[in-house]
Amino acid sequence: MDQTRSFVAVAEELHFGRAAERLNMTQPPLSRQIQKLEKSVGVQLIERDNRKVALTTAGRAFLADARKLLIAADQAPLTARRIARGRAGVLRIGFTATSALSILGQVLSTAAEHLPQVDIDLREMVTREQLAALNSGGIDLGLARPPIDPDRFESKLVQTESLRLAVPDEHPLTQLDRPVEAADLRETPLIMHSPLKARYFYDLAIRHMPIQHGNVVHTVSQILTMVSLVGAGRGVAFVPESAARLGIAGVTHLELAEQARDVVELHAIWRRNHRNPALTSLLEILGDTPLRSGHRPG
What we know:
The structure is a single chain. The chain has about 300 residues and is an alpha/beta fold. The protein is built from nine helices and twelve strands. The strands form three sheets. A five-stranded mixed β-sheet has the order 4-3-5-12-6, sandwiched between helices. Strands 9-8-10-7-11 form a five-stranded mixed β-sheet. Strands 1-2 form a two-stranded antiparallel ribbon. The longest helix is centred in the first third of the chain and has 28 residues, at about 55-85. Residues about 290-298 have low confidence and may be disordered. This is DNA-binding transcriptional LysR family regulator. One of its GO terms (cellular component) is protein-DNA complex. It comes from Nesterenkonia sandarakina.
């Protein structure tokens, strides 16, 4: 690196005396530095005689890269310190599709405001995929649904929202002047969550509203698919409140009567033994920053 600094000084001053003074050294060792560099590179970089100093064609090309190299060398310690303090680096965040409708944007805004040097790598995954990726080190942070293994993961509740009933716009249930009750669904075609691929929402639905399984006409795993089927008039569906933000035409979201307020939980989840300083910094910031998505935070 000393040879590179010597070359850049001579190339910019085009005078060995001034370059030596700039580097706080004498001319003989400066000349030796240039000679060693040219020998290492294998070409002549500087033409010099008693009257002038000039760059060769190769020297002019080398100067551009040498300047970049010095800038990178000067920045490297600062970057290392920022990474160690969690102020730079990469954060890989897994998120569910519905979290993108609610809390994800605020997490990203918070990171951009407080950790602008941290690069965010987003991965859309269902909860079980996030947990597997956290285990393998594929992601650093998940925005996912319970249950959470406390022996492997730490977590923070970042959002609660209500469970709602999505119905076609002209459905008779839209004429009720009250929340929807179980008896109202007795003869209603139901689009239900898969008990295997969407277990969390399946359990929520059957816990808060008695389900007539004979009414189930479709079983799906994605909220977007579910609401789209409702919009197509195929039935009604239990969805999180934030699903209204999908803006799918022909769908009305109704309140449920069975204690369904603020029962849908979203957690930030991370490995207990993580070693990413940027994650530590983000978690500290999230701990001090209320996250709001139009719903009452948990």
